[in-house]
Amino acid sequence: MSEELRAELEKRLESLNIQTTCVDHPPVFTVEAMMPHLQDVSGAVSKNLFLKDKKKKTLWLVSTRHDRQVNLNELAKKLSVGSGNLRFADEATMLDKLKVGQGCATALALLFDKDCSVTLVLDRDLLEGGHNMVYFHPMTNSATMGIRPQDLLRFLKDTGHEPVLEDFE
């Protein structure tokens, strides 16, 4: 299933004339497990959190640099959600909205959020930090795809997702 979704993603990127690089590796479920496989890449590696707002049931995909700490209470305040109201969304919701399961959350999966019900919160550093490439899973946790920051932004806009930029320093 994930290979078909990856192929669909690659086809969409190709149609936008977006060049990527890819590192295949064993399936990983944490950033810590992934990093040894990415020692030779140049750029910023992302970590992604799929969250929901306790009250409104709003869905959020948070993509930050892998070495950032994400304080959910502080983030909730920045997003005007209210402290203590951000939670991890369940895997069934992630599969329904993004077509990926545990360990595979990625901003690239927004391709499958057809009704744009997921809001992307993007670490400002991924776009403006001077990185030649930023890295995300391509619908599977057995690979990591590099994409230029300006191409990531173009891809997101093409899917109808305008990211909310936040500082996670």
From TrEMBL:
- Ranges where the YbaK/aminoacyl-tRNA synthetase-associated domain occurs: 25-155
In Gene Ontology terms, what is one molecular function of this protein? Answer: aminoacyl-tRNA deacylase activity
Q: Known CDD domains for this protein?
A: PrdX_deacylase (cd04335)
Give the matching InterPro entries.
Answer: ProX/PRXD1, YbaK/aa-tRNA-synt-asso_dom_sf, YbaK/aa-tRNA-synth-assoc-dom
The superkingdom of the source organism is Eukaryota
Q: Which family does it belong to?
A: Belongs to the PRORSD1 family.
This protein is called PrdX deacylase domain-containing protein 1
